Structures are given as structure tokens and as C-alpha cells.
Amino acid sequence: MARPQSILTAVMAAAIRERRVLSITYTGAIQPQLFAPVALYVDRANRLMVDGYEISGQRVRWRELDLTMARDLLQTEHTYTCDAMPPLVRKSYPRGTAMLERAKLD
Asked: What is the pLDDT of residue 78?
């Protein structure tokens, strides 16, 4: 069962502050995916978005995720440091983007 959007937002914001790795189940996916969230924001199309690193086996890649595509998420006991990830994507957020939470960079 999907969690309400307000709960997903609160869990995601806390994970960013604590640099916590999450287990996310995307809509249409069978298995959950590990995800290290870096920024939570509302884009110009008024969509709740989260940017971060998707972790799959030995592969780590930058991902921009529409939070409405997250069916469920759980906090893991794992945390991350930015220096343990590939070089951070230095994304410029457009003027007018409502930034809700953003990890402090090392």
C-alpha cells in the first residue's frame, strides 16, 4: 500500500538531513532500489522531485526522481558521505524552484 505524499516528503527530508540511504519501491517496479537522496524540491511544473544517487550493485548513478513515482520508501541503517559517491552533479536549479531540503556538501 502506498504511503501518503506528506509522509513520503517527511521521510525523504529527514533522510537528506541525516544522509540516510533509503530503500525505494517505484511504481511498476517489483524490487526496491537503494537511493541516497541529496535534494528535495518542487519543480516549475509543481512536481515534488528528489535528486540523488541510485545504487544498484556496483553501479551508482545520478537520478532525478518524481516523488509521485515512489510507491513506498523505507529508511535503512546505512548512511552516505558525498566523497564516497561519484563526483556530485553540480546541478543548477532554475530560479523559482522551491527547495525543501538539500544535503550540505562535504
From this structure: 92
